[in-house]
Amino acid sequence: MAFRRRTRADREFRKAQQEGFALLQMLAQEPSPFDAAQAEEPVAPAGSDAVVPDFLPPEFRAPCRQDVSGFMMRWDLPLVIDGEVHACHCGAYRNWIVFNMRDDSVWLRCEAGHEAEETRLDTAWYNRNSGPVDHFHPTLEDGLRHLGH
What we know:
This protein is of the alpha+beta class. The protein folds into 2 domains: 2-39; 68-146, no CATH class. It contains 4 helices and 6 strands; from the N terminus they run ααββββββαα.
């Protein structure tokens, strides 16, 4: 009895294999849908200057690092640099605006408007601690207003 069951199971398995192989052969004979899509693309005339479209139209592209003067972000917590809480000469130690300039310098601005370059911070620190850019501002005042200063 066990011998017949195994033979029947083997026979059904071989039949399924043959049907699958036949299906694969049939699909191999069909043209690829990617070939059809490429064949339908218009071909530019040889004499004209063909313009290749970019990935995005210019109005949707974000400015690159060289197109902007710098980046800014809020830093509401006390700023700890090299194990010490950084404080402004006016006594402020929180609610900073951190600027990362095009020349890779990092500047700090307190709520009172005092600005100073912080040489212990660099662009790598800024990139680790900042989030994605959410707005581009035409002026510094616009950016500061957006950040609440």
